Amino acid sequence: MTYDEQFYKMYQDYLKEPTVRKAHDSLFKIVSRYPSFSNVVDLGCALGEFYNYTNPEKYVGIDINVLPDGKRKILQGDYRKVENFGELLKDYNPTAFVSLFSTEITAPAVENHTLYEKIFQEVSSIQSGLVSGFYY
Asked: Is-above-0.70 flag for pTM?
């Protein structure tokens, strides 16, 4: 399946399903207790689930398939090709990164581990990370 309008419509409908909302909102309630998740960089942010359901104080998304919505700050591009996250995010100083339905399903674990280490090393303000991968 390609990341086209039909995919995003299906994904948006999926995110509204009661069982999905119950599971995701439970997790969001937990992470909202951690101050680091009030200032996030969202890797593969497309529909902005984290932004829309947690309302962080500061937010910037990075996505190659971004769907502009006029609400969020978006850096259009491929987060896997970022040469220096510290330089890219210097104006944002995020304290956490999130990736919901992006990193974990688009690369092997070893590659993702390397990506997460790179983010922690290059962005000194990062304290936490939340990633997930699921299929439907």
From this structure: yes
